[in-house]
Each structure stands twice: as structure tokens, then as C-alpha cells.
Amino acid sequence: MSKKTPLYPLHLKHKGKLIDFFGFTLPIQYEHGILHEHLHVRKHVGLFDVSHMGEFFIEGQDALAIMEHLFTVNVSKQKDGSVRYGFLCNHQGNVIDDALIYKYSNEKFLIVVNAANIEKNEAWIKANLTNSDAFTNQSDAYGLIAVQGPSATSLMLEVCDQLPKQKNTFLDKVVCVNKNVMVSKTGYTGEIGYEIYCDQHDAVAIFEALYAYQEKHKVTLCGLGARDTLRLEAGMPLYGHELSENISPIDVGLSVFLKDSKHPYIGHQHHQRQPQLKRIGLELIDKGIARENYRVYQNEKQVGTISSGTFSPSLAKGIAMAIVDIDVDENQPVDIAIRNKLVRAQIVALPFNYRKGESEHDR
User: Fold this and answer.
1) Please, what are the domains in the chain?
2) By three-state DSSP, how is residue 245 classified?
3) Is the pTM for the entire model greater than 0.90?
């Protein structure tokens, strides 16, 4: 039976179209649809329920050493109050999960993981701990609200007494609607983004307080569908697509999130080689939508497969990311096999140029 997030009553109230998402009941969209939600976030601000994400804590005098061993993030150099993206890898150097690492101090870290991998991650971490008391899974205690879009800061200032100013930082003691919360400034859409970590019992009140400004700040509610199209336009990887236990970070252009060999972590020895594959962005020239696992060809030879694909609301065309051979010529077009038909696409830089044609006034 699917779990319900603390915001489940609001999804019903606001007519969310609910689906099972890795064991959680969440809205794929609301009544205005994915296209509306996506474009609204690009121009104004949207609210997302991301309470399904997992929250782990590593604490105590061994916390720093544990984090250095388990994760690819160089936490010894990470500043207190900052957030870093990195990976939990297996002994083959492939990705068990990608995560955000929140550093409070050398003795306290928050690890935010994907909902689909909570149980797997917990088992892996515990199996690789010498001090099991250092780890706690507090996922069920939290509500998590993402506020994304150009107007996010203005909206957040209506309900919070202070906000983190720099990207990839957080403040632990924020008062939001008379509730004590933690607020970070990261995001998964390519827009200005904040996350509110709150007690699960406070989530509804905070969400309703934000949505009460729907007219003043043009706030919309957003589901999983818009979250995915927004992250794809922003060129951000998704676990199970661009990352998996069969994919190494170095083969999808994510080596920048790996520590050097002087700071070993589980799987590090497999990251000392040159990449054999690469992740590319594709804009379809012909009509069509490229879906996961569709074959990619160049000069009549299969060179890879689509990892994520959709229709881009911002660009009004099909876009995709693909994992292809390292020697693919990025100056030449490729063909994608869509329903037994080859559809032409051009290779483009990531993130996609979803601001094409926008003026400063539009932002």
C-alpha cells in the first residue's frame, strides 16, 4: 500500500491527479496540467511536495570519517552550512544513489536521498559502518516543500524571517509561519529554488501559507510531471535514467563530483580511468518524442540509447539526454529510432537553452 505524505490532504483538496510513485501517493499534475505548471515555474513560482525524499543523519565524533568513506563529496573541505551534490557508490564505482549532503559541522551531516532508494541506501550504509549508532533514518519525521521559480525569493520572504543568500547553502534556524524549520537554497529545475524541511505535522500549515499568496506572487501547484520536464530542460540527471548501479559517474560527465585519489571512498579505484561513454543533450529536428532506451545512431551505426526524453514546453520541441560512445562526433547529427522510424536530432550543450527568445522582462 502506498505511503501518503503529510501534504496528501492538500493534493485531494486541490484536485491533484494522484499516482503511485515508488510506494508514495503523489500528484503527477494538478487540474491545469503539466504544460501550465512547467511554464509557470519558468516565469513565476511553483510549489512542489517532495516529502517522499529520504533524510538520513550521520552524527558523532566519527561522522566526518564515515562520510569520507561512503560518499564522493570531499566533506573535509566542505564548509559548515553548505550543501554539496555527490554519490554513494558500490565497490565497482557505479552509483547506488545520488544525494545532497548538508554539512552542519564535522560531527553532523544530513543526507537527502531518492525515495525509491531509501531502504537500499540504509542497508548499504549500515553494512559499511563500524559505529551503527552514528546513523539514523528520520525520513518519516519530515515534510519537505520545494519552492521554485524567479519569484521564489519574494514568496519565501512573505513567510520566513530569514533565507540563505547564497546558492547551495542552508540555514538551520528559520521561523516560517511561526514554525521552526530548516531552509536550503538548491533546486532541481534550473530556477531559483528553496527547500523547506519541517516537522511533518507543520507541513500543511506552511504549504497553505505559501499558497495563500497565489494571486500576489502568481503561485501554482506542481506535480511530478512538471518536476521531470523542468529538470530535463536543466540537464540534471535522474537516478534510474542517467545514473544507476550499472552506470559510473565518469561515463555520464559527472566526474566533477568525485574526490581525487588522495581521499579514497568506496569504489574510488574504478574512477581513475578515462571515460568510455558520455552524456549528451539532443534537440529533435523532426517531430517526435524520444523515450528511454530508444536507440541512437550516427552514420548508420548504433552509438547509444536515450536515457531521458520529453516534449520541452519551453522550446516547443522534443528534447532528450542520451548516453553514447565517447567518440561520437558532437558536430554531426544523430538519428533516433522512434517506432521503427529514424528521427533526426542535433547534439546540443547541456543544460538546454530553455531561455531562448526570452527578454529580461519575461524572467
Assistant:
1) 3-53+140-233 (3.30.1360.120), 55-137 (3.30.70.1400), 276-354 (2.40.30.110)
2) coil
3) yes
